[in-house]
TrEMBL record:
Domain AMP-dependent synthetase/ligase per the UniProt entry, residue ranges: 18-393
UniProt entry keywords in alphabetical sequence: Fatty acid metabolism, Ligase, Lipid metabolism
Molecular function as annotated in GO: ligase activity
Residue ranges occupied by any AMP-binding enzyme C-terminal domain in the UniProt entry: 443-517
Organism of derivation: Desulfotomaculum copahuensis
Lineage per the UniProt record: Bacteria, Bacillati, Bacillota, Clostridia, Eubacteriales
Coiled-coil region list: none
CDD domains: ttLC_FACS_AEE21_like (cd12118)
Family stated for the protein in its record: Belongs to the ATP-dependent AMP-binding enzyme family.
One of the GO biological process terms: fatty acid metabolic process
Top-rank taxon: Bacteria
Stored InterPro entries: AMP-bd_C, AMP-bd_C_sf, AMP-binding_CS, AMP-dep_synth/lig_dom, ANL_N_sf
SUPFAM superfamilies per the UniProt record, alphabetical: Acetyl-CoA synthetase-like
Listed name of the protein: Acyl-CoA synthetase
Length: 536
């Protein structure tokens, strides 16, 4: 721990709210339905929540869980819980009761705040939560109190609005724990520190040109990497948070128009729904809407469709373990003169490190040597720096494995183009090796996305007696269309090498996580049942 001195103060995103409340006391900080809180009111509510938590025994090193959509209480928790030197545990609202019980117990949470819509999940496991001492009902959808505890506003009323003393002594203290999706086993608790949250929040504001005039719409779940640190970054510049309970295109476009939204973040699947919304082009934007996308490599077609309705799309890349985004497709002015398809292809790349990230490279998995900048040689993306997690909570072996060689290993395969820009080709577990040839599922998906009748697509490896494994595509057609298997296959044959063309096509819905990621492991489990299993 470094002591405070004339020339050193521990970095923490908590300082952002204190400053914005001082500089912009009467400016709108938070909008939700008919509620509007100024920065002064927002700061007082946060202080009340911290004070109330302190009165029920929450203090330094404790954990507090929230199971809540993107409403004001979830945002307030990102400041109030860390104010006490405690860590916020933001729980995915779409998990099963068993998964929630595991997270609440594994994280050692002492209190849990639950939105009414999801209270049945906690009610079903309440007797399995011996460490939870305080339950609080967030009554947003109705006034019922399914859990034995105060209602959120009542709980706030037990606290004081007065500013609290700074108890953060070390900027490397744990500020939040975010649990991974657990697709390869039990979820892992990713520990963030104050310094990393501070740096990544400023990185978002800097890279995406946010200011006090910006209006940010909460289409990205706050429980996902703490909203990629926008929970703190929006506040840092005194911008306005527009909370959104459910992510549906009609509501997104209404708020973009009525509130003058300037920024939003979303997974490619959300962009697909936005671009295909029938009234998308009728939206009267007050300014060009900056859209930041990540979660999966977006197809150039998706980017092109979004920009056709007046949005400016920027691709970023990262993982939960690096606070969300770590790289960005930093745009160069000379690319503006390129044809629209070429621009879209460049925008689909993952780019270079954020200003505040700095360290990222693509290496040969066998020797950690950097791959050549030839746009062809595959390697694993590795990162290090201020915005890499402290480690996995109570899982030192997994932490050591992830940090081997002094770098965080992403598990993502990429190439590096001659200009140094990274482009993801696949997850290590997703790459298809067919008859000794590597096939990028992303490349095949990008090809199929160009078909005019395709809404969404996922490509995986399926077993084949001759080649070992071959590509299969799962396609969601656009409403009102009826593409055939032969049409999709012939479309691919005209655009990519024959060995990359899917050998089978299946039409139907795709399984997704709560953040919009397609769960390929579920598709693989079905296809490889009864065969030698691939690693998920």
């Amino acid at each position: 721990m470094t002591q405070r001195t004339t020339y050193y103060e521990p970095l923490s995103p908590l300082s952002f709210l204190k400053r914005s409340a001082f500089v912009y006391p009467d400016k709108t900080a938070v909008v939700y339905k008919d509620k509007r809180y100024t920065y002064s009111e927002f700061y007082q509510r946060v202080n009340r929540l911290a004070s109330a938590l302190s009165r029920v025994g929450v203090g330094k090193g404790d954990k507090v869980a929230f199971i809540c959509p993107n409403t004001p209480p979830m945002l307030e928790a990102h400041y109030a819980v860390p104010m006490l030197g405690a860590a916020l545990v933001s729980v995915n609202i779409r998990l099963s009761p068993a998964e929630v019980a595991y997270i609440l117990n594994h994280s050692d949470s002492k209190a849990v705040f639950v939105d009414n819509e999801f209270a049945h999940i906690v009610a079903a496991i309440k007797d399995q939560l011996p460490n939870i001492k305080t339950f609080v009902n967030i009554c947003d959808v109705d006034d019922s109190r399914p859990l034995d505890g105060l209602e959120y506003e009542e709980f706030l009323a037990t606290g004081s609005p007065d500013p609290r003393p700074n108890v953060i002594e070390d900027e490397m203290e744990n500020i939040t724990i975010n649990y991974t999706s657990g697709t390869t086993g039990l979820p892992k608790g990713v520990m963030y520190h104050h310094r990393g949250a501070y740096m990544n929040a400023l990185g978002e504001a800097l890279e995406h040109l946010m200011s006090a005039n910006s209006v940010y719409l909460w289409t990205l779940p706050m429980f996902h990497c703490n909203g990629w640190c926008y929970t703190w970054g929006v506040t840092a510049v005194g911008a306005t948070h527009v909370c959104l309970r459910k992510v549906v295109p009609e509501e997104i476009y209404r708020l973009v128009e009525e509130e003058g939204v300037t920024h939003l973040c979303a997974a490619p699947t959300v962009l697909v729904s936005m671009a295909n919304y029938p009234k998308a082009r009728e939206c009267k934007m007050k300014t060009k809407l900056k859209v930041i996308t990540a979660g999966a490599p977006p197809a150039p077609t998706v980017i092109k469709n979004m920009e056709a309705i007046g949005a400016e799309v920027t691709q970023v890349y990262g993982l939960t373990e690096v606070y969300g985004p770590h790289t960005i497709c930093e745009w160069r002015p000379e690319w503006n003169a390129l044809p629209v398809d070429e621009r879209a292809a460049i925008k689909a790349r993952q780019g270079v490190a954020y200003i505040t990230s700095e360290f990222v490279k693509v290496v040969d998995v066998s020797n950690m040597e950097e791959v050549p900048y030839d746009g062809q040689t595959l390697g694993e993306i590795v990162m290090r720096g201020n915005n890499v997690m402290l480690g996995y909570y109570k899982q030192p072996e997994d932490t050591e494995r992830a940090f081997r060689g002094g770098w965080f290993h992403s598990g993502d395969l990429a190439v590096v183009h001659p200009n140094g820009y990274i482009e993801i080709k696949d997850r290590i577990k997703d790459i298809i090796i067919s008859g000794g040839e590597n096939i990028s599922t992303v490349e095949v998906e990008n090809c199929i996305y160009q078909h005019p009748d395709v809404l969404e697509v996922a490509v995986i490896a399926v077993p084949d007696p001759k080649w070992g494994e071959v590509p299969k595509a799962f396609v969601v057609p656009k409403p009102g269309t009826n593409p055939t298997v032969e049409e999709i296959i012939n479309f691919c044959r005209e655009r990519i090498a024959r060995f990359k063309v899917p050998k089978a096509i299946e039409f139907g819905e795709l399984p997704k996580t709560s953040t919009g990621k397609i769960m390929k492991y579920r598709l693989r489990e079905k296809e490889w049942s009864g065969h030698e299993k691939r690693v998920n």
